[in-house]
Amino acid sequence: MPSFEVQRCTEADIPRFFEIVSLAFANDHEYVDAVFPAHTTPAGRVRGSERMLDIFHGDPYGNFLKVVDTGTGKMVAAAKWNLYEGGPLPPQPEIGGDYWENEEEKEFAQCIFHAFFAPRQRVLEETGASLAALDMLMVDPDYQNQGAGRLLVRWGLAVADEMGVDASFQLRLHRVFSAD
């Protein structure tokens, strides 16, 4: 079995981060397909990587992580944990842009995006914005069921413990978006 290590992502990791999103969910997850149209095509991967890079730079709460196979140096899993340490309530995320083939597809993506994040927004309100939230977690299909996803979950739970917040309810809310 490979040896894995959790590391923080750099800007250079984001194309592989998004590639893992696409590989892990293929065209089997309505949320991913709607929010990242054509993500399994080369052009869709480029657009998805650019959007993920915008999130990487623009989300002040986001912590992008990767699991690396220490024997090969290959990134095999990725996650984004959002860490909210009290303070003003952040607004619910929104999506926009010109990524969809028509207005109907864009409206559907915005609707499903809003529905996905609404439960977390309610928890943020209830906790006074003190929360460790698993935003996304995915494992390259070639490495699933080998423990890489569990390492990313453990990372977030350890941070939640340090922050003094319970993250387990957030894991249930976001289980629909995990692949390991």
From TrEMBL:
InterPro entries reported in the protein's UniProt record: Acyl_CoA_acyltransferase, GNAT_dom, Trichothecene_AcTrans
Record's protein name: N-acetyltransferase domain-containing protein
Domain N-acetyltransferase: 130-167
Gene3D superfamilies (UniProt xref): 3.40.630.30
GO molecular function: acyltransferase activity, transferring groups other than amino-acyl groups
CDD domains: NAT_SF
Ranges in a coiled coil: none
Residues making up the signal peptide according to the UniProt record: none
Pfam families: Acetyltransf_1 (PF00583)
